[in-house]
Amino acid sequence: MSYEFERKQRIAIVGGGPGGYEAALAGAQLGAEVTLVERVGVGGSAVLTDVVPSKTLIATAEATSAIGEAAELGVQFFTRNDAGRPVRPEVTVNFTAVNARLLRLARQQSEDMKSQLIKAGVRVIQGEGRLDGPQRVIVSTGGGAKSTDFDEIDADTIVVSVGARPRELDSAKPDGERILTWTQLYTLTEAPEHLIVVGSGVTGAEFASAFTNLGSKVTLISSRDQVLPGEDADAARVIEDVFTRNGMEVLSKSRADSVVRTPNGVVATLSDGRKVEGSHCLMAVGAIPNTAGIGLEEAGVQLTDSGHIRVNRVARTSMPSIYAAGDCSDFMPLASVASMQGRTAVFHAMGDAVNPTELRNITSNIFTNPEIATVGWTQKQIEDGIAQGEIYKLPLSSNPRAKMIGLRDGFVKLFARTGSGTVIGGVIVAPRASELILPIALAVEHRLTVDQLARAFSVYPSLTGSITDAARAMHIVN
Question: Which of 50, 60, 232, 458 is the most exposed place for a label (fewest CB within 10 A)?
Fold first, then answer.
């Protein structure tokens, strides 16, 4: 009697960010032989220099803001001077301690993720990975050219998850001291006295918001007529109003032609000749995928003009054996999307059940203060006739819980299909909007109607009560 043993499917993953990490876990779960190659640390830039440290910094900024606003709720902080009289203490931020904490958390998260991979049976290699055709990865594990410095991985499936890096301009070259990218902020020993932020997209707006709350003077240079161009116009208007009320200077319809160092800081020269002087400058002008020089085109993988990898809804590239996940792909650049792409890629490659990623179901969040969370179709798409829907907006100022905790800014907005009342999208502007958006995301995912959403019991009083109130106001009369 003879026995034939089927060889395990081999999966090689280049890049250990959220997409690569989830792909590796999915492959191990399905019984594949998985090798993950990462040059810096598991978690990639998302964990080490981007999402984890930036949101940790923002958490500190929120705590600072909460202390400043506590007086409105009747909470007073004071100490006594030598004469025994109460004096109000100054709220300060130990920036060295803040950065030490966030970098420690990032490293710990990376180590935890690596431990999870090893526990699952994934082989983790630290090195530089590049493709050698559609089914082989070459890994440089050392600095020399000796054969022992390289490792070859043959694979049935390759998942590329190499991420992206901050875009740099020759006219405003980051030096890591005064002119900074968002990966270089965590070496500062104190909050900038005057931070100039070039770029009012998500990254620029988030850091501008955070450093304002941390006590820095902030000037935000926006080339568009509103901050957060492309986002919900009502939400962007609320955020800009909060920015200016908190003392931020927003220069709309302005473009920075150059940023250079001075003896004591930086100066940004605008296209109209104006000059803005500050102590530091954050360049937040987009990102570039890390796809150059890793053998993609030679392996037959199609790239966009911007260098992103073309993928379909199951994260497959133009080569059947190669998938791509995360910011290096031409899909939506979110860590949650990268994770979903990584899982979907492996499920598809191994013949497991798979649901192609639907852009309309993706929830995103902007971590300003307050936050902006969105899902589904947008108001602009409805107004432009791309989608047929009704719009209802409910300010949080009418919510009893919002009044109790002193909220002045924000709203809940729902979009429902005309006729059927099916929820097709929504926007929330509020503290912790990232947590509040989930009920709307579930409604969009499962095609619930506004009446079905309204029938869910929300706690009274709660901010989520505004979601059911908005749904109730959109009741479909039968």
Answer: 458
